[in-house]
Design brief:
Elements: H1 20-35, H2 41-61, H3 64-81, H4 92-110, H5 118-127, H6 129-148, H7 153-163, H8 169-176, H9 180-207
């Protein structure tokens, strides 16, 4: 399993920015479509969170083709369980990523070679604190990545350098050629917007 430390969405900056209000509205539309078995529900889910889902699965499984196959399983399960989705318990992004986590673990369990009992070995590995911690950290990092993709490009690119590459503000300034004061201002703005998006994603349950 790839380390959660390296999680970074490819080309995430190309996604159009979304305000917290837009995020809540987009998730509400998708949740309502799922509850009503609307044929367009899955398109709404993919539009909102498809990139984060595929990125998470690709890193979790270390294989793009397998990740795409598992993504189809995830979408099928999202559709099948859509009527029972409760926005009061979790935001849509958190909910679909949690389903993706379960299906990815199922896929990893199937990879255990014979003659070792695959179920037993997988359970032993997955029950280890470090394995659970790494899996949960990876899910959370891709949840953040999915929200970062909604920020304006300038703010998002700097936050990725800070979060994923561990660079200081001074190092970011040196690498990008952006004045240090501008780097600081953009990071403050980006963090504020990210906090609002996190609250909106988690708070969709109070306004759906």
């Amino acid at each position: 399993m790839a380390s959660a430390q390296t999680a970074q969405p490819a080309d995430a900056g190309v996604s159009p920015p979304a305000s917290p209000r837009q995020l809540r509205r987009q998730d509400r539309r998708a949740a309502q479509a799922l509850r009503h078995r609307d044929p367009g529900a899955m398109a709404l889910v993919m539009e909102a969170h498809g990139r984060a889902l595929l990125g998470y699965l690709t890193q979790m499984l270390a294989d793009r083709a397998t990740a795409e196959d598992v993504l189809q399983q995830v979408l099928l399960e999202v559709w099948q369980r859509g009527q029972s989705y409760d926005p009061q318990r979790a935001g849509l992004l958190t909910w679909v990523l949690t389903i993706a986590r379960s299906r990815a673990i199922d896929e990893l369990r199937r990879r255990v070679p014979e003659p070792v009992d695959p179920v037993t070995l997988a359970q032993e590995r997955l029950s280890a604190p470090e394995s659970e911690s790494e899996t949960d950290q990876l899910l959370e990092q891709w949840r953040i990545a999915g929200l970062l993709a909604r920020l304006p490009r300038d703010e998002a690119s700097l936050l990725r350098l800070r979060f994923y590459d561990g660079m200081s503000q001074s190092e970011i300034s040196q690498q990008t050629g952006i004045a240090l004061g501008t780097v600081k201002a953009r990071m403050v703005s980006g963090l504020s917007q990210l906090r609002d998006l996190l609250e909106a994603e988690e708070g969709v349950r109070t306004s759906a």
